[in-house]
């Protein structure tokens, strides 16, 4: 599902520290205690064969066991923003496709932990595959696949518990997922968080969530269906734009200083040109390149440079920071 929720989810888990914080919150302690989180790696590109790209879930990680053995498990994460009663069957297809991929690659089999992250206002009574066949004679039950799924409903986590998460990016991400259906309340909470931030690094860490909320507010307001707390929304939009402008200014300044240093050290024309940062296009490219190296995602870079996401991706590919499409 390629939508704003999907992109926001993936962007926040692209960072290893964020992913570790997310898993420490969503996995049961009995499971997370068995894992060496420092060994966590994203294996999506190598784990999924081309023919399976349309089948697999959002994020797949590989993690070594805490015992120190050279044995890994995989963590498959699916997220849902709506109640899907048959999602267990979808997860089952992911699991068996993943095991088949391991076998085809002649890899040692790894245990795969399915994690279902749910964020919607309606309550969901998650059902496993075997629960759909409970009315069949008991003797028939042995033919039905059985596997456990970690089901995490963000609505069951209190705001206090969320804000106690040490990773600020994941805390605000979880808060946005819990309250995205109450934008008035969410905007108010996020504004309070922004006001409490002490430095540039903290503001930068929640940039992805700010873009996500900004797009949600703009989308609904454009349909003229969202008018409550309008002054609060305007304040939020102004604060976010101010933060984006500050981030862009800092990146431009750092790029200019770096260019000057390189130009002075190497004495090359291109270094001097970079130092002077001649031309608006060159400045924008520098913001994209340096912002990406600092961990800013595509949506954030598009927002602060006023470029389309396609143009941002094009620049990153030209600079060798993203692989071109085959």
Radius of gyration: 23 Å
What's the shape? globular
Helix content: 40-55%
**Which parts are unreliable, with pLDDT below 50 for 5 consecutive residues or more?**
269-278
Order of helices and strands: HHHEHEEHEEHHHHHHHHHH
Beta-strand portion reads 5-15%
What integer is the average pLDDT? 81
The main pleated sheet reads as: 5 strands, mixed
Helical stretch tally: 15
Number of strands: 5
Number of domains: 2
The assigned structural class equals alpha/beta
Quickly list its features.
five-stranded mixed beta sheet, 11% strand, globular, 15 helices, single chain, alpha/beta
List the helices and strands and how they pair.
Blueprint lengths: L3 H10 L2 H11 L2 H4 L2 E8 L1 H4 L11 E7 L6 E9 L6 H18 L6 E8 L31 E4 L5 H5 L4 H12 L3 H14 L3 H6 L1 H16 L7 H37 L2 H8 L3 H14 L4 H8 L3 H10 L8
Parallel strand pairs: 3-4, 4-5
Antiparallel strand pairs: 1-2, 2-3
Helix pairs in contact: 1-10, 7-8, 7-10, 8-10, 8-11, 10-11, 11-12, 11-13, 11-14, 13-14, 14-15
Describe the structure.
The protein is an alpha/beta fold and 326 residues long. The protein has two domains: 4-181, no CATH class; 182-326, no CATH class. Helices cover 54% and strands 11% of the residues. It contains 15 helices and five strands. The chain has a five-stranded mixed β-sheet, sandwiched between helices. The longest helix has 37 residues, at 230-266. The model is unreliable at 269-278 (pLDDT under 50).
């Amino acid at each position: 599902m390629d939508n704003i929720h999907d992109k926001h989810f993936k962007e926040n888990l692209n960072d290893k520290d964020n992913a570790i914080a997310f898993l420490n919150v969503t996995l049961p302690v009995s499971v997370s205690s068995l894992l060496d989180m420092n060994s966590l790696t994203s294996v999506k590109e190598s784990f999924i064969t081309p023919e399976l790209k349309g089948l697999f879930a959002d994020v797949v990680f590989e993690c070594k066991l805490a015992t120190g053995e050279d044995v890994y498990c995989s963590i498959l994460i699916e997220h849902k923003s709506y109640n899907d009663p048959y999602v267990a069957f979808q997860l089952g297809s992911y699991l068996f496709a993943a095991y088949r991929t391991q076998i085809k690659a002649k890899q040692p089999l790894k245990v795969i932990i399915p994690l279902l992250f749910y964020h919607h206002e309606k309550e969901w009574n998650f059902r496993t595959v075997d629960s759909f066949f409970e009315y069949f004679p008991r003797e028939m039950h042995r033919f039905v696949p059985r596997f456990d799924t970690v089901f995490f409903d963000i609505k069951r986590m209190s705001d206090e518990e969320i804000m106690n998460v040490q990773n600020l990016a994941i805390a605000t991400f979880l808060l946005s997922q819990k309250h995205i259906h109450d934008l008035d309340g969410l905007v108010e909470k996020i504004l309070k968080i922004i006001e409490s931030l002490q430095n540039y690094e903290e503001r930068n860490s929640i940039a992805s969530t700010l873009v996500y909320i900004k797009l949600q507010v703009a989308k609904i307001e454009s349909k003229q269906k969202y008018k409550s707390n309008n002054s609060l929304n305007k304040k939020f939009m102004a604060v976010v734009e101010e933060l984006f402008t500050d981030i862009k200014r800092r990146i431009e300044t750092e790029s200019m200083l770096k260019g000057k240093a390189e130009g002075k050290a190497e004495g090359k024309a291109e270094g001097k040109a970079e130092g002077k940062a001649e031309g608006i296009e060159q400045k924008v490219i520098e913001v994209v390149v340096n912002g990406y190296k600092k961990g800013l995602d595509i949506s954030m870079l598009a927002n602060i440079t006023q470029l389309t996401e396609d143009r941002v991706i094009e620049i990153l590919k030209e600079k060798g920071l993203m692989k071109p499409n085959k």
